[in-house]
Amino acid sequence: MPDVDMKGSRPLSPHLQIYKPILTMVMSILHRITGAALYFGTLLLAWWLIAAASGPAYFDFVNDLMGSLLGRLVLFGFTWALVHHMLGGIRHFIWDMGAGFGRDAREWLARATIIGSVALTILLWVIGYMVR
């Protein structure tokens, strides 16, 4: 017969305070968050396309809203989420091919995803403003 006192004193599962946040864990959580943020950004893109199809007055309204400081910050965040999620997907693809499982490789890929997403986002916006 099991000892009831012993069963009651041990934890049922690890608590969040036990886990030490490491870079790859943070990147996994961030990959999920950016994936969810892309749904919101896709709604903004659909709204912009619907405004373009609705007529010039409504399109100008939405364009002015997206061109405001707040609108540009949201679009910049959407661009970063898109690039970051893409690079995270490439990182997962590398893992699917059976490479990059070593400790140093995992850390390098995580850092490359962060640095690459920020750099590519800034580069895309600089190119966008130069073309504009």
From TrEMBL:
InterPro entries named among the record's database cross-references: SQR/QFR_C/D, Succ_DH_cyt_bsu_CS, Succ_DH_cytb556, SuccDH_FuR_B_TM-su
Pfam families given in the database record: Sdh_cyt
Single GO BP term: tricarboxylic acid cycle
Major place of residence: membrane
GO cellular component: membrane
Chain positions recorded as heme binding sites: H85
Membrane protein topology class: Multi-pass membrane protein
Keywords from the named record: Heme, Iron, Membrane, Metal-binding, Transmembrane, Transmembrane helix
Magnesium keyword on record: no
Compartment list: Membrane
Function: Membrane-anchoring subunit of succinate dehydrogenase (SDH).
Family note: Belongs to the cytochrome b560 family.
Protein name: Succinate dehydrogenase cytochrome b556 subunit
Source organism (scientific name): Pannonibacter tanglangensis
Gene: sdhC
